[in-house]
From TrEMBL:
Keywords: ATP-binding, Helicase, Hydrolase, Nucleotide-binding, Nucleus. The keyword Nucleotide-binding applies. It is found in: Nucleus. GO terms for cellular component: nucleus. The keyword ATP-binding applies. This is Uncharacterized protein. Its main location: nucleus.
Length: 71
């Protein structure tokens, strides 16, 4: 949580697996998960996908999670 808050305050790099990103940006869970979700979806100024083929299909859950990022 400290790393995510640091990323939200200033420009930084956060490496995260696709599945963990999908899970953390899901709409379910407790209050601290809501804060994590907001940080991941509203604060990135750049998103780099290491394996673009993973998120290529619109039916893919990773694709759906990445579409929610507000850039």
């Amino acid at each position: 949580m400290a790393k995510l808050k640091s990323c939200a305050k200033s420009k930084s790099v956060l490496g995260i697996r696709y599945d963990l990103f999908r899970i953390l940006t899901g709409e379910y869970g407790e209050a601290n998960k809501k804060e994590i979700r907001e940080i991941l979806l509203k604060f990135p100024s750049l998103v780099v996908c290491k394996e673009g083929h993973t998120a290529r299909y619109e039916n893919n859950l990773v694709w759906k999670a990445l579409k929610k990022v507000e850039i």
